Amino acid sequence: MGQKRIDLRSDTVTKPSEAMRQAMAHADVGDDVYGEDPTINRLEAEAAKRLGKEAGLFVPSGTMANQVAILAHTERGDEMFIHRDSHAYYYEGGAAALWAGAMLTLLDGEEGLFTADALREAVRPANIHHPRPRLVSLENTHNRAGGAALGVERMDPVMAVAHELGLMVHIDGARLFNAAVALATPASRLVREADSVSICLSKGLGAPVGSVLVGNRAFIDRARTYRKWLGGGMRQAGVLAAAGLLALDNADRLQEDHQRADRLRNGLREMGYDAWEPSVPTNMVMIETPGLAEPLVKAALERGLAFGTMGARRIRLVTHLDVDDEDIARALEIFQELRSQYRAG
Q1: Which tens digit of pLDDT belongs to each residue from 52-97?
Q2: Number of structural domains the chain divides into
Q3: Pair (210, 314) in one structural domain
């Protein structure tokens, strides 16, 4: 057998553990569209409990979770305020315009978060010429900000102004538990002021499929209808929820991913790579390249190391549960071999 490929493209590439496979094989199931899948029901209730909300809704993907939330919070023509680098704007194919007919107003701010003052200035007074301001969408951790974990001292003031102005708040918490671990703050506290939250089970938590959207019961009732409209009503999906329940218990081990990301980042810096980190880093490492990043990606892959780009001159590396200390050491060896090509740009 050849040498193991080290895959740092994303924490979505993780494989389910043997314990997850056994749980899936023996899951108690029913028809979830009828509300009769006991394992789905347990997962939804457990996710809601851990995030301090009333109810939950299991969906196939993080994108569907975000889009169902937008649909449930808005009506056609409503205005949504979102950072221009947020996943729901940047990576979801214009779905908010397609499905919800929402107008997205893009804001700027450090590490993927605009300020409370910036939001206040962006919300226009009620007028027949203006769309109805309705929703604020935030993201924690923030992907394009290098996996930045955003603390309550930054998030809460924005949500307070949103509610003062009569807006709802949705948090894309695809990697919320990474933020909770990095900030040593319960996930429920990070999202206490939010009206809805989505979490991904299939990233660092290690499940093969699925996300959960949580909020109050009235919101989840609406969201369930929109999930059906988008084709997300599944049947004996308890086989997936069984893995999701185990995934929720994986949150504490995310610290290992953060530590390996630190080791990788520090090693790259020692070699002269321009590796940067946000104010509170998690499981991502970003490298700015002098020239185009794609040739470096190709050269690394030929040596058994996979990673991706976030723009023409930026590389992203993501640690996860299928990457161990030996993998980090080997990744650094490969980057050592690629130094001359990196410097040449």
Answers
A1: 999 999 999 999 999 999 999 999 999 999 999 999 999 999 999 9
A2: 2
A3: no
Q: Answer whether residue 158 is part of any domain.
A: yes
Assigned domain for 1 exists: no
Q: Quick one: tokens of 179?
A: 């933020």
CA angle, 79 then 82 then 85, to 5°: 145
What's the rounded Cα separation, in Å, for the pair 22 and 17?
Answer: 9
Query: How many other CB atoms are there within 10 angstroms of residue 199's CB atom?
Result: 29
Backbone angles phi, psi at 79, to 5 degrees: -100, 135
Please state at what angle helix 238-248 crosses helix 18-25, rounded to 10 degrees. Answer: 140
What are 255's two structure tokens?
A: 């610290």
20-61 tens-digit pLDDT:
999 999 999 999 999 999 999 999 999 999 999 999 999 999
Burial class (CB in 10 A: 0-12, 13-18, 19+), 249: exposed
Are 246 and 141 found together in one domain? yes
Which residues constitute the domain of residue 197?
18-250
Strand duo 305-306 + 284-288: pairing: unpaired
Q: Which residues 6+ apart lie within 8 Å of 326 measured at CB?
A: none
Among the candidates 250, 274, 292, a domain finishes at: 250
**Which tokens sit at 208?**
């093969």
In a domain, 30, yes or no: yes
Is residue 96 within 8 Å of 70, Cβ to Cβ?
A: yes
CA distance 143 to 113: 11
Say whether both 194 and 267 belong to one domain: no
Same structural domain for residues 112 and 229?
yes
